[in-house]
Amino acid sequence: MTSRILTPANQITILRLAFVPFFAILVVDQRYRGALVVLAAAALSDMTDGIVARLLKQETPLGVALDPIADKLLMTTAYLALAFRQAIPWWLTIIVISRDAAIIITALLISLVAGYRPFYPTALGKASTVAQVLTVFAAVSFQAHVPFVMGGMVRVLAYLAAVLTVASGIHYGVVVRKRYGQHAE
Fold it and tell me: Which residues, other chains included, contact 79 with Cβ-Cβ below 8 Å and sequence gap of 6+?
């Protein structure tokens, strides 16, 4: 039974969880080149775990739950650490974390009231996530003095991430209302 839980894909996801404190420490210590390496390794592990699970036909309930948790933990940590170091604005960090918290609380409440229901990401939610990830990569790259990454690029991505995050949060609210609001009547 253990081998079914600790599949290679799940082990890769757990490794991504292990990257989180290292990334935070490197950002807080302003060692942005190291933080960029850890961030790139985490992104690579995120792509790899899903591919490995599908190729080996080892998709598990643990993996399905653990993957988004690892992603959200890394992104939340990245936004908090980068805002602490003023590499991204606090207002963006608050928007990103508030939307995620609202989605998690809503999904938990729906699960408690109506039983487990899958809560799939929408296209707008995925676009928001891409903009958030690009903003983190750009902010870390700018702080690491990567050529061709300018402060203006970070600002533009921050505003794009903010707009898409707010829009996706509103959209999730509309979707939840349509899907589950009819049961309340």
Answer: 88, 92, 93, 96, 97, 132, 136
Percentage of residues of the chain with pLDDT beyond 70: 94
- Specify whether 65 is located in the same domain as 114: no
- Residue 21, both tokens: 């404190």
55: tokens are 């190729």
28: Cβ contacts below 8 Å, ≥ 6 apart: 81, 84, 85
Which domain range does residue 95 map to?
87-185
Instruction: Please check whether residues 150 and 75 belong to one and the same domain.
Output: no
Residue after which a domain boundary falls, among 85, 108, 140: 85
pTM: 0.89
More confident site: 80 or 176: 80
Tally the domains of the chain.
2
Q: Residue 185 corresponds to which amino acid? A: E
Domain boundary among 34, 68, 85: 85
| Cβ(45)–Cβ(14) below 8 Å | no
